[in-house]
Amino acid sequence: MVILFAVFLLTLLVLTAVAIVRTENLFVAVMLTGIFSLLMAANFFVLDAADVALTEAAIGAGITTVLFLGALALTAEHEKSVSSGRWLSMGVVIVTTLVLIYATFDKPRLGDPQAPVHLHVAPWYLEQTPEIIGIPNVVTAVLGSFRGYDTLGEVFVVFTACIGVLFILSGRRGRHLPSNGMASSSTDQGLRHHLIPRVVGRLLIPFIVLFGFYVQFHGEYGPGGGFQAGAIVAAGIILYALLEGETQALKAVPRPALMGMIIGGAMLYGAVGIAGIALGGNFLDYSVLADNPVTGQQIGILLIELGVGIAVCGALLSIFHAFAAREPS
Amino acid sequence: MDSAIDVLSWILLALGGGFVFVGGLGALRLPNFYTRMHAASLTDSMASILILVGIMLQAGWSLAAIKLLAILAFLLLTGPTASYALANSALLSGLKPGNSADESTEN
Amino acid sequence: MYYIVSIAILITMALALTRALLGPSVYDRVLAVNMFGTKTTLLLSVIAFLYGRPDFLDLALTYALINFIGVLAVLEFFQSRSIRRANNRVDGS
User: Chains touching chain B at 3 or more Cβ pairs under 8 angstroms?
Assistant: First the structure.
């Protein structure tokens, strides 16, 4: 039955992907990308990967659509037609596809109990997590503690990407449209004249932010964690910016606070690592953070997830404001 | 008592599934944007109430029931708002209700 | 019983996707994406109970909230686009 769901969803996915590539209207492509990410999240869910599905839901469907629309407002809406090199690129794509399909013949079947990952890697993690770390969500345990270096790298990648985007986009801030009666910046007003979405949005924003905090701190027990929580809180504040206008949102969370969040989140992660060294263990060794090593691990995971959440939230908000602040020329 | 709850839950789920399918079919087959919006909002409100209440009966008194209640509340709050905002935006940008092909049958 | 409901929701998702691919105006496509999002929420709730893992309902709750934000972002884009077009027409004339 799972196979039936997965095959159906994957078929829809292929159809959507073909439609995204074939259409020339970029707005249609953005809408279809939203559907694509919804389908991917449903796929991940059917395959029982809840943390990944939650991340895809939070980032793919909401925030990526907003950022694409912001980019679309600054550029054209129709794709320029490509004239040369079509057959060459088609040939490269077909060859790569065939090589990839050939490579999957060696993969073990989905859920095969004799696969190497189920004989060596997974049982080790499943046995060691209750003893060493003691939290129910093994995914968070692996992400936060056993593979802590990878997550440190991810936080710094988010940090670097955000800084890169801000360098590119903030350069030409402040080019205003020639002033006449209607030319107050359109993103400044938001959906100010629409009463019903404003009221409903104002009701929802506290719940969205509260839900983001819930996902942050509940990450050790259920699907959740820093990335998802950061994206959800950022989505709530982006909703406020959409409804009330961008300047109001900048009054609520000003730019220095955003920079502080990005830098502070990454530094919190690094500080936990250095605290490990200062207290006598290795870098990112959480066992020395408290008297009981298990409690130390839990404290360590809590702190680094907090760092990740703050950094992701700040990064997404900065990128959104960078897009929204540019006047379309 | 348990079987009564089960039967009720099955009926609600079946009705919900029927409404979802009818709404989807309407969104595909109806001629105009505003009529399609009627069909799509049917799936947002009626079908989600029936399906989620049907699942809530199965869940009993637990945290899952409270989460389902929260999902239902948010869907009912945001679905009509999104429909209103979409219809308003379409009307303001000039999409006219009514279909020119229907005029021949009005007389 | 959950199987039948989830199959009905999956078929509706396919119908919504068809509307998103066909729809002559952009508003049809936005309608289809909104419908798709709420159907995904319902599908996630039903499958969470089908698998016997009720703690996966967080995902459905996330989707119910995020879908709304996506639709409002699209509408704000339309509004700013029409204001920009009106400005360009005023400037150009």
Answer: A, C
Task: Give residue-wise pLDDT tens across range A175-214.
Answer: 444 444 343 444 455 556 678 888 888 888 999 999 999 9
ipTM of the complex: 0.89
Domain-wise residue ranges, chain C:
2-92
Interface of A with C in 113-172 (CB under 8 A): none
**pLDDT digit string (tens) for A108-149?**
877 778 888 788 888 888 888 888 888 888 888 888 888 889
A66 and A215 together in one domain:
no
* Model pTM score: 0.88
Query: Do the domain assignments include residue A104?
Result: no
Indicate the residue among A53, A79, A105 that finishes a domain.
Answer: A79
CB pairs under 8 A between B and C: 137
**Which residue intervals of B1-107 are DSSP H helices?**
2-29, 33-42, 48-59, 63-92, 103-106
With respect to residue A18, please indicate whether it lies within any of the assigned structural domains: yes
